[in-house]
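User: For a reading group we're discussing how well predicted structures match intuition. Take ABC transporter substrate-binding protein. Before you show the prediction, I'll give you the sequence so everyone sees exactly what went in.
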Amino acid sequence: MRRTMGRTAAMSAAALLLASAAACGGRDEGGGGSTAEGACEGQQTTGITDETIKLGGIYPLSGPASAYGAIPKGIKAYFDYVNAEKDGIDGRTVEFIVRDDGYQPPKAVEEARRLVEQEQVFALFQTLGTPSTTATWDYANQRKVPQVFVATGASKWGTDGEHPWTIGWQPNYISEARVYAQYLKQEKPNAKVAVLFQNDDFGEDLLGGFKKAIEGSGITIVQEESYEVSDPSVEPQMRDLAGSGADVFLNVTTPKFGSQALAADAKIRDWNPLHIVNNVAASVTVLEPVGFDNVQGVVSATYYKDPNDPQWADDAEMKLYREKLKQYVPNADPAVPYHAFGWAVASSFHKTMEAAECKTREGLRDSMRNLADVEVPMLLPGVTMQTGEGDGFPIESMQMMRFEGERWHLFGDVIDTRKAFGPVQHP
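Assistant: Thanks. Here is the predicted 3D structure of ABC transporter substrate-binding protein, as structure tokens, for the group to look at:
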């Protein structure tokens, strides 16, 4: 995507304008930001001024995926911190408005419209869930509103060329599946795998990526079972999978069902597979209700620092996160990884917005698609944000982890799936 001209050249161009022409007017009724850069003239400034920037997020604060409601607390802590102590982002105070869609796509559309048309937000920052984001990205694209760092790893956010205003953040599900496939190729090259997956784009994306990644290996999938987000329980599916003869169980679920699957696995005494739980259901808050004794040896993969891991006790960013979460969101437990996730993604937005050459919607769109090995302190060492022409995936590196005792333990090296497997293609 073409970058806007550099700051020096733009300021030179601006000098040719009439002295009174200092503002960069918005194209729609909410415009009001300003800049001296002539290259930015006519671009959208709804929701941003020289003093403020308004963002809107959509999360399942209620419903079957309500565990994710912890994420905006971490985001709030970060933005409150930079507002109070760092003069905001580029001198602008951040207002972050959170809406609840209950993990219901029609509700997500309703909330997106409310945020854009009534609240006049500058950008939609974090729409959580593949179904909700799928339901809203056409609208964001039509309105030319950045839909930044959506909280879903669906591969289409990075492979679709018709929605430049929407981009993911976390490793896409195909990349995550590749990490598990590579791990099995090394540790259990003749694995027989049973899979439980959510019957939507999320589940099908990760499962499809896994199938592709094991092609040509000795690893086979012996049984698959799906569930709907409206299902009360996945125990029936787990009982069926237990009779498959599999020695590996791939658990592709959201938190509520991930916890149910872990509990069911623990109850089935004559089935003891290697249990792989996908990252989105790997929080300690998912495992703890099952009982830590029942989840020993479960493996997953991650890309950001776990606040429960003592190796980060003296880490400067982790100490800052703990201090500011306690200060600005005192009811939030810093040990909950979803809070750290929120802090990390807010920090990522901060860096992306600062790098935008035009402080406009178009400028943010271009910046989020031209990230050059951006370091975010809450990400694991060796994990950076990188996007560019033909690459719409900010993070594609992960490291395996195993649950032992009362926390996750990292093992092995960070795996850059770009290098290990090549570009992701949407199945």
